[in-house]
Write a structure and sequence with these properties.
With 210 residues, this protein is mainly α. The protein has 2 domains: 30 residues, no CATH class; 156 residues, Tetracycline Repressor, domain 2, CATH 1.10.357. It has 10 helices and no strands. Helix 5 runs parallel beside helix 8 and helix 7 crosses helix 8.
């Protein structure tokens, strides 16, 4: 229903009619609409394949998981906002979060750093996904024509005019890939700093023999 009508088209009465039951019957299974939306968010997140240890090193696993997350957004643009905006609030979502954080822990990051990097990754993926949804005009009441796609006046908007050819759908994949690789490279740099800090330092003041 959300895929076809958007979140604004979802209500308990219509859902009950779709299921062939009274709206009140749904409350025997879910306490309210908030819990229903949590369940939808869980369903979306469970569609993300979190790469396991056997599927590569930690960077490869993050890359694969990131692509899977984005594919869910592209497949369900009207429902994806639930993943971007709702806190993880079901056992299934917590299991997925546990597995994603586990990739960072497997790389050697402690709980605090794993959380920070997860937040950074999530911010990028959600932002990139929402940008892709917007560019593909998959938002409610999207206009038929956009000023930016009609090459704005270069005298009034020189910077926008220069950027306009690269802001369309054809460049989404390349921009996503570049941003993801830049972020993963920085994650790798953070891990190298961690490993250097963990190395034992040579004792100072020892005399050389011979």
């Amino acid at each position: 229903m959300i895929d076809s009508e958007g979140l604004e088209g979802l209500n308990m009465r219509k859902l009950g009619a779709e299921l062939g039951c009274e709206a009140m019957s749904i409350y025997h299974h879910l306490p309210g609409k908030a819990h229903l939306l949590d369940a939808v968010a869980e369903l979306l997140l469970l569609g993300v394949h979190v790469a396991a240890k056997a599927e590569g090193n930690w960077v490869e696993r993050l890359r694969s998981t990131s692509h899977s997350y984005r594919s869910v957004a592209v497949a369900h643009p009207r429902a994806f906002v639930l993943l971007a905006m709702r806190r993880f609030n079901t056992p299934g979502m917590l299991r997925a979060l546990n597995d994603i954080l586990g990739i960072f822990r497997d790389a050697g990051f402690d709980g605090e750093m794993a959380t920070r990097l997860f937040r950074i990754l999530g911010s990028y993926l959600n932002g990139a996904a929402m940008a892709a949804i917007t560019v593909r005009a998959q938002i409610p009441d999207a206009p038929d024509s956009l000023m930016i796609e009609n090459r704005p006046d270069p005298e009034q908007f020189p910077n926008v005019s220069a950027a306009a050819p690269y802001l369309g759908e054809a460049h989404l994949e390349a921009i996503f890939e570049q941003g993801l690789e830049m972020m993963l490279a920085q994650f790798g740099a953070e891990r190298r700093k961690l490993l250097r800090a963990a190395r034992p330092t040579a004792k100072r003041g020892t005399r050389r023999r011979g």
